[in-house]
Amino acid sequence: GGAVGATFTVALLAAALLLALSLYASSLPRAPTTPSSSSNLVGLTLVRRAKEKGAVCLDGSAPGYHLQRGSGTGSQNWLLHLEGGGWCRNLRSCASRQKSVLGSSQYMECQIEFAGILSNDKFQNPDFYNWNKVKIRYCDGASFSGNVKNELQNGTKFFFRGQRIWEAVMSELLLKGLRHAKQLSGFSNRMLCWWASHFHSLR
CA-to-CA distance for 47 and 65, rounded, in angstroms? Predict the structure, then answer.
């Protein structure tokens, strides 16, 4: 009986100690819930005078991209990421995309985190951490390849202007230093090789 009573007493003391520690921890000031210092958020840039150039998303909004400037030995090297999104195969699916991030910049995040091959962490991304890095947002419905006039269907306008989006973004990036690139690399869903050859005609 005495051994059981002693064990019960120790258990109560342990529970009381855990409760006291929990209450003490909850009374400590909490760190603000802001992104950690290791996060790598990059803002969205909308193409200037997009409508004037006819370079617009499916819904007619301006397309966008995220640019993080390089530094040091990577200041004249560029890494491009063409965001994938597939194709909308009929007007119904294209109409649904107009109300999403895949067809309108109105739904795009103001900031996104650059991670992996886009990271600026030297240990996580030793090859490209200090390069100029660009993520070109997808919003045209045809993998940056369309260039047709407005198509009206049941009162809804569709803009298939992927090629113009690509050219408008490249024109802005050339002015921001891409024309002086010593090294150019990139990745996407099978589109980059085709556009890499087209890029030379824009320089």
Answer: 8
Domain tally, the chain: 1
* Residue 123 placed within a domain: yes
| 118-166 pLDDT tens trace | 999 999 999 999 999 999 999 999 888 888 876 766 678 899 999 999 9
Are 57 and 105 spatial neighbours (Cβ–Cβ below 8 Å)?
yes
DSSP 180: G
pLDDT tens track for 165-177: 999 999 999 999 9
Backbone angles phi, psi at 179, to 5 degrees: -65, -20
Structural domain of 143: 41-199
